[in-house]
Amino acid sequence: MTGLPSSHPNQGAASAAPRRIVVAGGGPAAHRFADAMHARGLDGWHVTVLTEEAHLPYDRVALSKALTDSDVDLTLGSASMWDHTALDLKTGERVTSIDAAGKTVTTAAGTTYPYDELVVATGSDAARLPIPGAELTHVYRTLEDVWSINKAIADLTVKLGRQVKAATIGGGLLGLESAAGTEQLGATPIVINGSPWLMNTQLDEGAGQALGRLIEAKGFTVHGGVFPSEVLSDDDGQVTGVLMADGRTIDADIVIVAIGVRPRDELFRAAEGAVQQFQLGQRGGVVISDDCSTEVPGIWAIGEVANFGGMCLGLVAPANTMAEIVADRLHGGDATFPGFDTATKLKLSGVDVASFGDAFARTEHSLEIVYADPARGVYQKIVTTDDAKTLLGGIFVGDATPYTSLRPMLGRELAAEPGAYLTAAGGGDAPETELPDDAILCSCNNVSAGTIRDTVNGCGACDGNAPVQELGELKGCTRAGTSCGSCVPMLKKLLETELTKSGVEVSKALCEHIELSRQELFDAIRVLELTSFEEIMAKYGTGDGCDICKPTIANILASQNSAYVLDAGRGTLQDTNDRALANMQKDGTYSVVPRIAGGEITPKKLGVIAAVAEQYGLYTKITGGQRIDMFGARLEQLPEIWKLLVDAGFESGQAYGKSLRTVKSCVGSTWCRFGVQDSVAMAIQLELRYRGLRSPHKLKMGVSGCARECAEARGKDVGVIATADGWNLYVGGNGGATPAHAQLLAKDLDDETLIKYIDRYFMYYIRTADRLQRTARWQEELDGGIKHVEDVVVHDTLGMAADLEAAMAKHVDTYIDEWADTLKDPERLRRFRSFVNAPDQKDDSITFVPDERGQMRPATAEEKALAGQQPVLIGSSIPVRATTPELLDQNEV
Prior knowledge:
By secondary structure, this protein is α/β, with parallel strands linked by helices. The strands form eleven sheets. The protein has a five-stranded parallel β-sheet with strand order 3-2-1-7-19, with helices on one face. A hairpin with a 2-residue loop joins strand 21 and strand 22 (351-357).
């Protein structure tokens, strides 16, 4: 069989047959080449892409999404591109040989395809371990690989009846992504790394050690500095562990190998007897010149199979650049490959990691400016020239905030002293950086800041050279931000800056699915009385929503009515803690926090908490908000615990919600000789009034009985301080990473006026703040600041005081306790099971040990390793997260 007819007409001749391009491989590099040819015009060309996989080209960078969600669609670009008559994608066709003399390739099916130009984009294979038992391991490279891992963990969970121990061999980018994925699937993540520290290719020792501490704090177990020597199994072939070179055995039920990749250069090795031999790199890959051509005319190589400067790298940015260069050359251009950009940024289980440029300071006389805080797991390093002016590289772990603005400045003079960019040191935000036009903003797609500015002010690809004013459209026109996404914050900032310069109002869209701001969406839902996510998306959104708009809509609906937050499909919209009505801890157990209004509690109720904590073996601690937190409850134990608490008169403290947390108080005039007002009574009144009030961010209050301020009221969102003439009201105080003192709003108020002003303040904040915006930042960004707040709340300049008060009155009148409501409904209780298919089964794989202060705590990694040899203090367990509230919401409710 043969492919297209073997003719060689001149390029561009309208009446001649098209020149034939064959692409061997169907990964991201192949897709980018086809896309680049399509964008430049396919007149006179016909492109045939031969991929051995059964799928359209997909995004390997996002494989971790497919590991945890088998239904996710990772298809690159628009599938409609392949409908073009000059583009032909053939799946299930693996190229097995090249006939360079005859200019044909042959596939495993025996089909021969003639070509005029051949682009080899065969990528790489996952490296395998040359040790006994290697055949029992999984690798992390293709969709089939991650689907296999997903199924294996699910099957093992059922088979073993406990949490699966998933060991990933390899502590690099892919290894950590794999381990994080297994953790999301409910397995215990174990990382085995031959290097003494993680990500040793991208991070120096200080950064690698900081990363190790951070992910261990997330529940990962890390074994570094020793290589595995054998994968162990039982007589049935079930993996039981990994034998290390030092003689230790690490228990495991599944082993995943992610130790790197090997270029798939077998086509070039098989073709060595051709008219001209291909030059192969010492560590594999075919050697290319700076135009991405091989030594054989008409044959090009791009992506991981291409060896340039002695290196083959599995990164998306250089692969895309190579694809664009070959497309440019075939269209008569002169683009050249500048070398590998090794910049890396990822977010692993909530931990930021970034590395770029000369991160190891190998440049002669270079300087390293470092901030390290081992206790916090933060490491920031900037590498400059010896005059501390020109940026050469950097590493960020734990706080990668500066990476976005610094990465495009690589090789350029910094706008400030290097130390000013080490934000973790407490010096505030990084200096504002005005990117030069030729600075590369998106390294994955080689898009410069100048291209972004030109597109914003008039996109040549659009009809009429129209300006681009939306982030989604800007990404579509330039491709910036469409690969790894790390440049999106800088892209958005540059878009807004250019629009502001042009006098265009900057979009406040909530996310790419909803064009309205949170304030606009809140008002629309309130006015139209919308009650469901489906109604809201049908009227104001597109698509299925995302992790920005879903919880935001859930929060808005909850703040406008007091219906049970997990009913009517709202459960799937909520954040993890809201779904479980409890705070998940680092070991997967939950904490229980009953409300103790104003910090006042009777001895009898104290006894109930003590009895519950003893019965369930919970760790107890007094919180900063004058409550008692009980840690270590399993998911299925939560209803049992809350039944005892509710029967004793307790209700949910909503420590899990974006809502009122606590109202802290001093003892006040009832007992204290300095108190001038009854601060405890006022604190209890306020907490019972605003309990359950959902808001853009959590809310805290404080009431002090005199000016000595023992309740620290000025550090709260709303602070009340007693005077001889009434109450002084302070607003906008926050703790956290950027603390702010509350500002005086009104003074010497009576009880009724105080509560009226607080009603107005809270409801105005809830209606107008952005998602996750604290009251301090909200006030700062209001036009007029605290004076504007005073005008609205005290003087009613907007004429909405009565409406705000009525909204609060509705909340007070309709408040329900979420846990009391949960306990009444068997259907709601079904959410609280560790295993969907075995509701009575408990997972006893997590060990608690006594601490030095007479309570229990989660076992350390070393203690877990000994758990099978020593008696367990408390046989507690954690839920398999793939079958906890997230899955129940989707499959059962």
